[in-house]
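Justification of resources, computational component.

The compute hours requested in this renewal are based largely on the per-chain cost of generating structure records like the one below. Each record pairs the submitted sequence with a full structure-token output. That output is archived, and it is also reused by downstream analysis tasks.
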Amino acid sequence: MDDSGNNLHKKQGTRVFKKSSPNGKITTYLCKRDFIDSLADVDPIEGVVLVDPEYVKGRKVFTHVLSAFRYGREDLDVLGLTFRKDLYLASAQVYPPVYASESDNCGRVLLNPAKVSEGTDDNLHSGTLPLTRLQERLIKKLGSNAFPFYFKLPADAPASVTLQPGPNENGKPCGVDYELRTYVAETSDDKLQKRNAVRLAIRKLTYAPEEPAPQPSAVVLKEFIMSPGTLRLEVSLNKEKYYHGESIDINVLVDNNSNKTVKKIKLSVRQYTQLCLHNNNRYNCVVDELETDESFPILPSQTGWCKVYKLRPLLANNRHKRGLALDGKLKHEDTNLASSTIICNPNHKENLGMTVQYRVKVRLVLGFVSSDVSVELPFTLTHPKPDSDVNGTSSKLIIDDDNDILHSLLSGSDDRLKHNRHILQQSQLHSNEQSSSDRNVNITDDLIKLDDGINDNKAYLVSSYGGGVDDDDDLIFEDFARLRLKSYESDKRMDIADSSTADSTMATNVNTPNAVISPSSPS
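The structure output for this chain reads:
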């Protein structure tokens, strides 16, 4: 079982997120929820919407992308006054669609592209838009009632940032967030109704590619009143750009030509967050620090003192700090410290909502009488280059058991978890038996994992017969619900498909060799 789990993580496939409206009449399929801005280009927001024409009838289906900056707590919104500012809005009519046939064998072409209501439209496509590869595959499987949408965020669109709330704060946190909405209405300006609307939280993250840049360095020369000589402090970093989780090497060089004695040194990594409002408030938070007197004191007339220190800013060490800027956080998913904001156009800085910068501060402590010597160095904290299947052309099989949920279910000592542990173990055993019986079938599979958030989590198995993905691949969707942690009282009320013991329940096979369903509420 462990060997199969290890081999599973080595495989890659196409992942698609899915969410349905409360009444189940429209369903949104989204290529991904994290969209990377590489400075030169931004990942497109592409997907399809599955529509029930009998329900929509004479109305229309719209999809729009909204970016908003919330600078106050949600519970303070009273009397129609909201602490919220819309930064970007692009909308498109998905249904009824407008298609045309191209004579150059390009297939169907979408004639109603997204229109921008707010923000710049320099990077938005105009005119006709051909279907992407992922849209073609989804439409081929979902049928004629699936309609595509496509958005291209501009280069100056703000990045997703969330300010970490306090332990007793509820509601939406402050920050910049993105949301993809699909809804049924007469016009795009009609009020959204929850029963026939789909709302998906998405994120725009920044990836700064590796580029040659000089090492950050700074020198400060301190002179003292009523005291001869100077104290020279030189600080440098090993590079200018760091990825999340990397250690920062700080090289410190001190030449003490004064009659002062350096007692100790303090080093810190500070995050500076500036709100782009009328007052331009700026906040700073220490994300890692070090204070030491090792190899000290540095005596008068001592020169050439040099040492390298390491600091590593991580969210894991700062989860208790209120107001810390994080990359946009999706529900039930962990995140990291906010990436550095890279301002391409200073004239559009107010459209960013908030900016995040990082600095290393080095401080020499001289004593109670003398003033300390300090210097700050800026650096960039960003994401590494992503390697994902953007076009949705992967042809490998993934059996995604959602290891995060498995870990949460199988860990813990509460007696109520025994029931869930048995379900997971039996489900894994049943899945292995089914997969071993089909080893002789020559099929190349994709798993398109459809994650619809909280209410209706599903995954679909996509199979393409033959070698690789071609224009004639046959996508087969087969549902299975994610295993959810339920209380003992809830489990007693569920339908039991195959009971082998008095206190456990077997998972139900849903007519697929690699998919199982747990006894949970119907999707």
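The helical segments are 2-9, 53-56, 133-142, 403-410, 417-437, 488-492. Residues 217-382 form a domain with the Immunoglobulin-like fold (CATH 2.60.40.640).
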